[in-house]
Amino acid sequence: MSTNSDDQPKALPRIARTPFYYGWVVLVVAALASFTSAPGQTYTFSVFQDSFIDDIGLSSTTISTLYLFGSLFAAAVIIVVGRSLDRFGPRIMLVVSTLLLGAGALWLSRADSAWALFVGFAIMRSMGQGALSLIPATVVSIWFVRKRPMALALMALGGAAASGFYPIYGATLIDIFGWRTAWVVIAFTAWSILILPAILLVRTSPESIGLLPDGDPTRSVRSDIPVKRNMLDSERSWSLNEAMHSRALWLLIFAGTAQSLVGTGVMFHQVSFMTSKGLTSSAAAGVFVVFAPSLIAGQFLSGYLSSRVPIRYLIASGQGVIVVAMLLLLGINELWHAYLYGAVLGVNMGFLMNATQAIWPTYFGRKNLGSIRGVTNFGMMAAAALGPLPLALALDLTGSYTTGLVAYMALPPLCGVAALMAGNPSSGPRHTGLHAHQSSA
């Protein structure tokens, strides 16, 4: 809490006068945003893939290629989203992103050609996998410092719940209304969930409403005892240019590519792969129900370990589990094999997701986090864009996904080495932190 010239407490804004730290309110909205990103995530598209093939008349490779270029477009857009987040704040960006996500779903409901499908993929990936994944994680990282890993794990409950809900939701809507009407319903679902909470409740930073991160006290109980200097005055805070000249940034971007590429690829083709193994499409979609709680478990495991083990070690260790998950996927012959695979993949994806979200503010600070994460997410989204193509090519050329899955296993070991080479966070340049005069937008 700031003070006046007489060293008397200045009243906090009304929105900050909650009986608990207001950051928890922001975290809940961030979790809703993570949930709302689902229509642009691969696990939702996976249940629509056969509908695209049957109704529009495109091959699996063509659809995967369109998805690739749509996702690459989204990877370029995310750099603009990151800069805009630093400039306009999370409230405006959440509302705009949600409106555009719904518009993309409405566009997909009318897609009847390859180019129309590409436009839909580009919008949905830009806003779902891109903006509505970057913004929630960034705003939580700004509101929490000491409690950041666990706060990010709590935020990720929204995304984890969505990964279990949306494949079933989408498949049910397709069965009842058809795939085109399903996208219309999904558009209105997104708008109804997030727009109003974002407008009413989200603020840029704790400093923008007179608070400190984690709910730390702004002055001592006795007004004659000064509190320690604001922690942000000595917080590492890199500019985007400084971060881009750091060797650690590029090593860590590469270290995160395996989870993005492999995770996106297998989820995009998961229903098709499992039906080729003799499972029904509903049983294959049901694996996502196992995936969701496993993802949550992995998030909290990573959040717990992040305060005890250097995060780069966590990222490196997760690469070996990616290989294990691919071996399990190759060996699926019965339903319980599929559930075991879903559990292992879910735990590891949650584990790595939390670690890769927490590592950027740990290394580069909070002040320019949106711009920095725009660049880092570009690399990971580009990798995700490439993910479905190897499996599609393997299927069309050989009649099996096996070759593509084996090829996936070459990347994780290299990513593990890159994570270890990143080194400890350096002190870097020092600047002042996020100031109280920031916009509360």
Task: Walk me through the structure.
- The chain has 441 residues and is an all-alpha fold.
- The chain has a single domain, classed as Growth Hormone, Chain: A.
- The chain is 71% helix and 0% strand.
- It has 18 helices and no strands.
- Helix 1 runs antiparallel to helix 8, helix 6 packs antiparallel against helix 15 and helix 11 runs parallel beside helix 16.
- The chain is globular, with a radius of gyration of 22 Å.
- The two termini are 19 Å apart.
- The N terminus and C terminus are likely disordered.
Tally of structural domains:
1
Order of helices and strands: HHHHHHHHHHHHHHHHHH
The CATH architecture can be given as Up-down Bundle
* CATH superfamily label: MFS general substrate transporter like domains
Instruction: Flag low-confidence runs.
Output: 1-9, 219-233, 430-441
Find the CATH topology.
Growth Hormone, Chain: A
Overall structural class, as computed from helix and strand content, comes to: mainly alpha
Please report the total strand number as a whole number. 0
**Distance between the amino and carboxyl termini:** 19 Å
Radius of gyration: 22 Å
